[in-house]
Amino acid sequence: MNYIDSNLKVVGTRPLRPDGVDKVTGRAMYSADTRVAGMLWGKILRSPHAHARIVKIDTSKAEALKGVYAVCSAADFPDIPSEEAFVGEGPMNFRDLAMNVMARGKALYEGHAIAAVAASTPAIADEALALIDVTYEILPHVIDVEAAMAETAPLLHADMFTQGVDPKPTKPSNIAKVVKFKKGDIDAGFKDAEVIVEGRYTTQPVHQAYIEPHACLATCAADGQVTIHASSQGHFMIRAYTAKLLGMEMANIRVNPAEIGGGFGGKTLIYIEPVAVKLAQKSGKPVKIQMTREDVFRGTGPTSGAVVEVKLGAKKDGTIVAAQQVLKFQAGAFAGSPIGPGCMCGFALYDIENIDVLGYDVVSNRPKVAAYRAPGAPITSFGVESCLDDLALKLGIDPLTLRVKNAAKNGTKTHYGPTHANIGFEQVLAVAAAHPHWNAPLPAGQGRGIACGFWFNIGGESTATVHINEDGSVTVATGSPDIGGSRASMGMMVAEVLGVPAERVRATIADTASIGFTHLTGGSRVTFATGMAATQAAEKVVDELKKRAAMIWEITPDAVEWRDGQAFPAGTNAGAFEPLDLATLALKAARTGGPVNAEVSVNAQGAGAGFGAHICDVSVDKETGHVTIERYTAIQDVGKAIHPSYVEGQIQGGAAQGIGWALSEEYIYNDKGQMENPGFLDYRCPVASDVPMIEAVLVEVPNPRHPFGVRGVGEVPIVPPMAAIANAIRGATNLRMPNLPISPPRLRAAIDQAG
Amino acid sequence: MPKVVLSSGSSMQALTGGQTEFEVEATTFRRLVLELEQRFPGLGKQVEEGMAVAIDGEIFQDAYGAVLHPDSEIVLIPKIGGG
User: Fold this and answer.
1) Interface contact flag, A179 B78, Cβ < 8 Å
2) Is A263 within 8 Å of A33 (Cβ atoms)?
């Protein structure tokens, strides 16, 4: 059923968030809060070297220490073969995943896990780690992406041959893959151009910087059944990966989802769960592993840093006729950067006849990258949207007008194949053009920038169950961890279908043994796909309730209609009966056939793509190079906002993370390839005083493929900020800053150099 | 017959002998995968495990039942995840 044009009573309102009070008062149970009697503390020994051969691991002294119950290293895990699969949030090679969880043969980055211990106290575990004697043969390392691409670069993997080139290479390389997209004739396009601009841009790897470090608790029963408590973006993902890495059947692993303190893509991989399980199996006791913030920085994935080269050709009237891009993405120690979406997203916003994109996925001695909101898109768009600004300047055209002139619309064929349908980019730009921020006079000394962003959004597999409880209250359970307010949106969609207030529906997240498979929370898919399953489950419940009412009234079910949470006779011919509400029908459930509930599983297709435009005003302290964000407005097509406050929060959060990416966040390595700022004091995320009130403007162009018109919203808002800020800085200083972060020392140096 | 376009990555073109466009007799995505595998060994498997498909402009992932029409354009693209 489609509710897009219905008179909605719950969807679109702003009920209190169900998890809010517990989170701000400290009652919410995160994975680090989980404890059981007799548990051990697991700790992981990490490589101090960026690249080294592991000659020998001697754990005898650690094993002999009183209070140590188990020690493990790669030798304790199956040596699984190379196997490519698309699971989680991107292509995955299970051998790489296994070798990332526990180094085998070589340490490939500083922080790579080498061995682990389980002991009765954290202090004894630390002492045991110090007693593990590892003999390393230190190898040359490489950190920079272009240095890693050089033929003379230290080689990370002797068996890595570049994919995507013909003929197949005979020499191994750090370039894991080459990706190409072409549309039209790029040479003819540039020949036709009257104005050409180009630029070379760099972005740094930045961490997802979730507040809650990774933590888990693994228990192994006598019959081999393993239970894991962990916070993640997908407890089914934890089950699948852990089973694969340990050679177990999935049915023997049960994962309980804990409350999650942020993920942003970074919790779509596993790092510690198989280690905790192995230590629990060896010791016979529950084992808890809890990362420190330093562990998180040294051992888990940021997103890629990259080099982005962009060339644009246009007619004097602003029509872009040629667009070219070369992208070099760091993958970290194992192949798998988001180079594919990086190549697809930058030009997806514009209707350009001739496009050529070339991308490289490159390994280097850094932690393996993980997904981060709209993986790849912010990087590619930083280059494209900065270059567009320079094109507008050269053409003497307002930068928003240039974007409007070239904007993709329904029917625009993208350079990667699909044709845009049901998109709202033109509407977003129209709202931006009319917004008071864009039209406000700019205070002296400030600069204003605009940039846009795109993300596909995805659907996928989800399961939801709706139960009518014995008193007529309602429970909806799904398999989607709630990282952005999905419990509220699930409850509201179910309430809307059932015709009851949102407060009557309690949403919960079921463990892997209690609900059907559900793909992880990522790709901005949950409100769309899991919401579709929840909506359909609620509709099945309504159908069942109508049958029950029909049985009570002794009429046929099609003579019953459901509205406002009650069954009514459908017209006078159906009979004269008093309406039956949920509580009454629940009370009579045993007599009419038993409990009323429904489970629906879907593989949702038709996720509507999302577009956004951000406007930013900055001032620059020319003595210090410090940038102040004076005003920020983020406009986005959100399809239909189920709970507008959460949607605004997603947009504000994405913009805030983008501000950090633009101005302050970076990994600093010394000449040994060791990270020198693995903590929040020195890795500078924006704090409240760095971020102004971000005005989120919701544009609602319904996605016809979802019953309520939903399209994903969580990823688009991190795409435009870097370029919007850089473009504003150019306005304030007349300096194009092509390298992120635009930190005070870097900007001050540029100002000094410009004189 | 539906037309298949290889949009990305010359790794697939290596399996098709450099062909980037060809017609396939199929009415569903499942049949398409089987036909591709038969005609270009390895391609069907690669499409099934690592690709999404845009049918007449709309992206489908893991959808055997997606319907193809005689004049459909099918573009093979990398699967899309997210963060």
Assistant:
1) yes
2) no
Question: And the tokens for A146?
Answer: 């272009």
Could you tell me the pTM of the whole model?
0.96
Tell me A690's DSSP state.
Answer: G
- Distance between CA atoms of residues A240 and B22, nearest Å: 37
Q: Which residues of B touch A (CB under 8 A)?
A: 5, 7-11, 13-14, 49-50, 54, 56-63, 66, 75-83
Q: Over chain A, what is the mean pLDDT?
A: 96
Cα A615 to Cα A727: distance, rounded to the nearest angstrom = 10
Of B7, B57, B83, the CB nearest to A374: B83
The alpha-carbon gap from A439 to the nearest alpha carbon of chain B, in Å, equals 34
Calpha distance A232→A216 (Å, rounded): 10
Q: Do B61 and A459 touch (CB under 8 A)?
A: yes
Output the CA angle A453-A459-A464, nearest 5 degrees: 135
What b-and-e string marks burial along A348-363, b requiring 16 or more CB atoms within 10 Å of the CB?
Answer: bbbbbbbbbbbbbbbb
| Residue with the two structure tokens 């993709």 | A408
Domain ranges, ordered by start, for chain A: 20-27+459-604, 34-139+211-262+267-299, 306-457+608-754
Among 3.30.1300.10, 3.30.365.10, 2.60.260.20, 3.40.718.10, what is the CATH number of A306-457+608-754? 3.30.365.10
Please give the CATH topology (third level) of the domain spanning A34-139+211-262+267-299: Aldehyde Oxidoreductase; domain 3 (3.90.1170)
A residues 640..699 contacting B (CB < 8 A):
none
| Residue A255, helix vs strand vs coil | strand
User: Quick one: what percent of chain A has pLDDT higher than 90?
Assistant: 95
Q: Cis before residue A501, ω within 30 degrees of 0?
A: no
The conformation of residue A716, written as its DSSP 8-state character, comes to G
A340 interfacial to chain B (CB closer than 8 Å): yes
Angle between helices A399-406 and A377-395 (to 10 degrees): 110
The answer to whether position B83 is within a domain reads: no
Choose, out of B6, B7, B53, the residue to mutate when testing the contact with A (most A CBs < 10 Å). Answer: B7
- Region A20-27+459-604: CATH code: 3.30.365.10
Chain B residue with minimum CA distance to A418 = B57
Tell me whether A169 touches chain B (CB under 8 Å). no
pLDDT digits (tens, 9 = 90+) for A557-611: 999 999 999 999 998 888 899 999 999 999 999 999 999 999 999 999 999 999 9
The total number of structural domains that make up chain B: 1
- The answer to whether B9 contacts A419, with C-beta atoms less than 8 Å apart, is no
Q: Would B22 be classed as within a structural domain? A: yes
Same fold for the pair A20-27+459-604 and A306-457+608-754 = yes
Query: Which pLDDT tens digit goes with each residue over A656-680?
Result: 999 999 999 999 999 999 999 999 9
- Residue B29 maps to a domain: yes
pLDDT in tens, B40-82: 998 888 888 778 888 888 888 888 888 899 888 888 888 888 8
A616 to chain B, any CB pair closer than 8 A? The answer is no
The pair of three-digit structure tokens given for residue A263, joined into one six-digit string:
């993920």
Instruction: Give the model's pLDDT for residue A168.
Output: 86
CB contact under 8 A, A421 and B57: yes
Characterize the bridge pairing of strands A68-73 and A175-183: unpaired
Is the residue at B54 inside a domain?
yes
CATH code of residue B31: 3.10.20.30
Q: Torsion angle of alpha carbons A676, A679, A683, A688, nearest 10°?
A: -170
For residue A373, the distance in angstroms to the closest alpha carbon of chain B comes to 4
Which residues of chain B does A524 touch, with a Cβ-Cβ cutoff of 8 Å?
A: 82
Helix (H) or strand (E) holding A506: strand A505-509
Residue ranges making up the domain that contains B23: 3-78
Classify strands A306-314 and A566-569 as parallel, antiparallel or unpaired: unpaired
Q: In sequence order, what are the beta bridge partners of B53?
A: B60, B76
